[in-house]
Amino acid sequence: MSGITIGTTEVRDKLAHVLNEVAYGSQRYIVERRGKPLAAIIPAGEYEALLEMLTDAGVRGEIHGIAVQIRFDGDRYFISDDQFDLYGEGPTLEAARRDYWLAVQDYRADLEADADRLAPYLADRLTHLRALPTAEATDEKGTPA
Question: Distance between CA atoms of 38 and 12, rounded to whole angstroms?
Fold first, then answer.
């Protein structure tokens, strides 16, 4: 992350100064607690541009080797793919990622249940899904353990 790192106590004590630097000096701050990032303070115009970009075009990303498109409508995040035609959504990006990964795991389980009767294109999808981490090999956030 780029920007000035500042602790929660310091940002509380210097909030007016920090806000002025962000609003008028185009500075960015990363607020940390015990060395872990909690929030970013960025100029309002930059925030609006990011929201517009996520809403209109979205951004490309990857979840466990699956190319995905991430969008934000101002309230919720949406993650979809073109490969399996699956999606996930949630109030936070992490929640949407977890929901998407659950959809992938459910789809794999459905295909596994009918593995001996699948059409060739579905058998190919199952082969690709078998190469991905399983639910047991991921942590509670859906990331590889």
Answer: 14
Q: What pTM was estimated for this model as a whole?
A: 0.68
Q: How far apart are CA 115 and CA 47, in angstroms?
A: 46
* Calpha distance 105→3 (Å, rounded): 37
Sign of CA dihedral 57, 62, 141, 37: negative
User: Collapsing DSSP states into helix, strand and coil, what is residue 71?
Assistant: strand
Handedness of CA 106, 110, 115, 121 (dihedral sign): negative
Any idea which residue has 């960025």 for tokens?
Answer: 42
136 DSSP assignment: G
- The per-residue pLDDT for range 98-130, each reduced to its tens digit, is 999 999 999 999 999 999 999 999 999 999 999
Q: Determine how many CB atoms are found less than 10 A away from the CB of residue 54.
A: 18
Domains, the chain, ranges and CATH?
Answer: 4-42 (3.40.1620.10), 48-137 (3.30.160)
Compute the distance between CA of residue 132 and CA of residue 16 in angstroms, rounded to an integer: 48
The CA distance from 47 to 29, in Å, is 13
The residue assigned the tokens 């073109």 is 82
* Interatomic CA distance for residues 36 and 54, integer angstroms: 25
